[in-house]
């Protein structure tokens, strides 16, 4: 499959108007419970996909809780048990762009502002990443101080398959993972499951899902907790899960290959390295990469290389430029068509070949937007 079939479920539906957060049927529920502010992404039928209205409500409430002396931590979770958040409502954005309704500049700007707010949050921020956590869902969790995965967590950044790039700060956190793991995850969209999300360094803690409700209760019951008190509760549950008794990482046996093949400075060289390696693992990754948008692959490699020495804010400014270039281009809309609308899984990329993606094309994606740049 070109991309996880669950993405189709996420992006099939238009945005609904959002009810006020006091309404039980709201797309996002914002509650003060005990010592904590609790954010519940509440679109379980749509795998808690993120809409612009949700982004706005979360951002506004996060800023209020940050200033509130009675709020000692922030917890974010997904309703329904299947997903934390499987991404943004991308089909809506593509369709709006085609209809000349310019929501993309606003959606990406406000989503990235929220990613930065999570990364710079002055209160301990605990993301319970239970279930599908992809794209926009990664942006809501990975930049926070604590990320708690369960055995049902399914992590991926599969954007190169729809003519996009691993945004929401992917250019910041991916190159900082061990070795070249982040480059591999970014270019192939490889999925990590359960304990491996912790072993890869994406989650900070691992908890068995049957204990998740208890963990939340214990956090809410803390009295004026410090960051250390919160960390201590998380550590206790983590230790109980016995995850550290078995340190095996599903990609461990392939890490040497990943590190050598993905250390090249061009996508063409990475492909050549995989061919030269010739192992079944390398050839499988080659097959996957060859299905991806050539433009997306080149943008993504450069995004990570540049992001490796930038701050999160600098990365988000760079990614905002990339997002707007992708909206103007061909591949994003074609990827959405092939995967989410016609579902033929046969995107016709333009250019169709890596060698046709010129340095000039690439440089244009990274160009400043002047007064329209994302600023913090």
Descriptive terms for the model:
disordered N terminus, four-stranded mixed beta sheet, globular, single chain, alpha/beta, 376 residues, 10 strands, hydrolase, 2-enoyl-CoA Hydratase, Chain A, domain 1
Can you offer a commentary on this structure?
The protein has 376 residues and is of the alpha/beta class. It has one domain: 2-enoyl-CoA Hydratase, Chain A, domain 1, CATH 3.90.226. Helices cover 45% and strands 11% of the residues. The chain is built from 17 helices and ten strands. The strands form two sheets. A six-stranded mixed sheet has the order 1-2-3-5-7-10, with helices on both faces. It has a four-stranded mixed sheet with strand order 4-6-8-9. Helix 2 (52-67) packs parallel to helix 4, helix 7 (181-188) packs antiparallel against helix 14 (294-307) and helix 14 (294-307) runs antiparallel to helix 15.
Helix and strand topology:
Elements: H1 6-11, E1 28-33, E2 36-41, H2 52-67, E3 73-78, E4 83-85, H3 90-98, H4 104-119, E5 125-129, E6 132-134, H5 136-139, E7 146-149, E8 154-156, H6 170-173, H7 181-188, E9 192-193, H8 195-199, E10 205-206, H9 212-220, H10 227-240, H11 255-261, H12 267-277, H13 280-289, H14 294-307, H15 312-328, H16 331-341, H17 359-366
Parallel strand pairs: 2-3, 3-5, 4-6, 5-7, 6-8, 7-10
Antiparallel strand pairs: 1-2, 8-9
Helix pairs in contact: 2-4, 3-16, 4-15, 7-14, 12-13, 14-15
């Amino acid at each position: 499959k070109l991309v996880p079939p669950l993405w189709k479920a996420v992006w099939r539906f238009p945005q609904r108007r959002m009810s006020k957060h006091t309404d039980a049927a709201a797309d996002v529920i914002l509650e003060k419970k005990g010592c904590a502010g609790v954010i519940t992404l509440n679109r379980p039928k749509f795998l808690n996909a993120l809409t612009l209205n949700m982004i706005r409500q979360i951002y506004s409430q996060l800023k209020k809780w940050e200033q509130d002396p009675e709020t000692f931590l922030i917890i974010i979770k997904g309703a329904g048990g299947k997903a934390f958040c499987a991404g943004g409502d991308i089909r809506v954005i593509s369709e709006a762009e085609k209809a000349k309704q310019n929501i993309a500049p606003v959606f990406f700007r406000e989503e990235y502002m929220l990613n930065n707010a999570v990364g710079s949050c002055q209160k301990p921020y605990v993301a319970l990443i239970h279930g599908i956590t992809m794209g926009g869902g990664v942006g809501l969790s990975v930049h926070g101080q604590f990320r708690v995965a369960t055995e049902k967590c399914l992590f991926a950044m599969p954007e190169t398959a729809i003519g996009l790039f691993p945004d929401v700060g992917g250019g910041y956190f991916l190159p900082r993972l061990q070795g070249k793991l982040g480059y591999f995850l970014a270019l192939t969209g490889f999925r990590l499951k359960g304990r491996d999300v912790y072993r890869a360094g994406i989650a900070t803690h691992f908890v068995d899902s049957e204990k998740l409700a208890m963990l939340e209760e214990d956090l809410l019951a803390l009295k004026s907790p410090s960051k250390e008190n919160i960390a201590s509760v998380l550590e206790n549950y983590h230790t109980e899960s016995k995850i550290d008794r078995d340190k095996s990482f599903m990609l461990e046996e392939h890490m040497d290959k990943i590190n050598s093949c993905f250390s090249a400075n061009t996508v063409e060289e990475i492909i050549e390295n995989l061919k030269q390696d010739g192992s079944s693992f390398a050839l499988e990754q080659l097959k996957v990469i060859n299905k991806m948008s050539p433009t997306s692959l080149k943008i993504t490699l450069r995004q990570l290389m540049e992001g490796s020495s930038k701050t999160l804010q600098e990365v988000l400014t760079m990614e905002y430029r990339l997002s707007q270039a992708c909206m103007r281009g061909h591949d994003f809309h074609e990827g959405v068509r092939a995967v989410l609308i016609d579902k033929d899984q046969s995107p016709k990329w333009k250019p169709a070949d890596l060698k046709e993606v010129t340095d000039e094309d690439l440089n244009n994606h990274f160009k400043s937007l002047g007064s329209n740049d994302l600023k913090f």
